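User: Fold this; tokens only.

Assistant: Input:
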Amino acid sequence: MATITRNAKSSNDWTVNELDAYNISIVPEDCATFFGTDVLPLPDHHHDLVNNPTADEMEDDDSYLAALYMDLAANQVPDQESAVVDFVKQLLHTMGYATRAAHRHLRSRKTILFFICGEYKDAKADVCIMDDYEVLLVVQEDRRHMEVADPNARLIAAAIAAVQNNNRMRSMVGSDVLDFKEMPGIIMLGTHPTFFKIPVTEELLQAVQTGQFPPTPTVVSMHVPTLPRPAERFREGMQPLDNRRIIIAYFEAFKQFVNLLDLVLSRVLDHVHR
């Protein structure tokens, strides 16, 4: 809302008030609307994870570690840091989100410079995927076992800060800055993901940087996976095999929004034209 007071706040201090202050809303979407299809096939290279219930039954080391961290992340202790960040990093690595061929790497608990209301603050990404200098995906943990907070608002603030960072780095290396970026994001509650597509426009960037109300609404797309036992989704997460197969298919489909193939192609073309 235009009348809400806007202050320079770090991403961890964002709430629904900041979303209203910058004309940002979140709209749930079904699978077909969010992913462009309601058929999400399993990847053909993760047989261990989709067929074996426990870590000890895994044959390859990456699947073993993913299953091990999954069990640790599912057993949260009140008022103690969980293993969710360790689990997400290992799962994204196992599923090929960050590879040597794509020149991508995973970071945990990364601090991103966040310019808001004319001041520099910090944004925190519990996990992010980066290439040489740009943030390509942000992940936040829902820490409701430790604190009262708004993970959706935190994620969106981190996404805005990530686009600021990317444009700052692009300017430093002489590349064109982006006037639009749809930043993919994930919120993890235990081992249960919720997927987001966060459109960051030049108008939104300017509004946040100057503490103004942007006339154009920003509509964030959100999808909660459809699981066999909806009432138990957060308690079960990825531990039951039927849930795990569905969620792994979601993670595989979500890769398209991180533009993995586009990056590899651009690097190949750059090499060809040198």
